[in-house]
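Supplementary Text 2. Reproducibility record for the structural model of the 109-residue chain.

All settings were left at their defaults, and a single model was retained for analysis rather than an ensemble. We include the record here because the model underlies the residue-level annotations in Supplementary Table 4.
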Amino acid sequence: MTRSIIDAVAEGAAVMPTTKGFLMKKAVVGGLVAGAILAAAVAAAKNAQSAGSPEEREAKKAAKREEMFAKMQASMEAMPDDFPPVALMDNIAAIRETTERIRELLEKD
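Retained model, structure tokens:
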């Protein structure tokens, strides 16, 4: 007597499909997981090789910060003078002075 999958599930039995489609999906998912693990390992190895000494890493970070700041300055200069971020950057000195005066007044009280 053969049972259907529905009857087996209804009785609480664990049913594992063995169709070609299921096995293919299982193989594809396994391949994707293995590929992701391999990609992570390659990326970690590449990062470890290019890391260099702590001084070299700091120098690279500093150079990257300077490059990003230069790009930001160039984009700010290309914007109109009344654009809010430009007005804010132009008024940073005034904002600092005002903040210092507020701090002095609060410290007196």
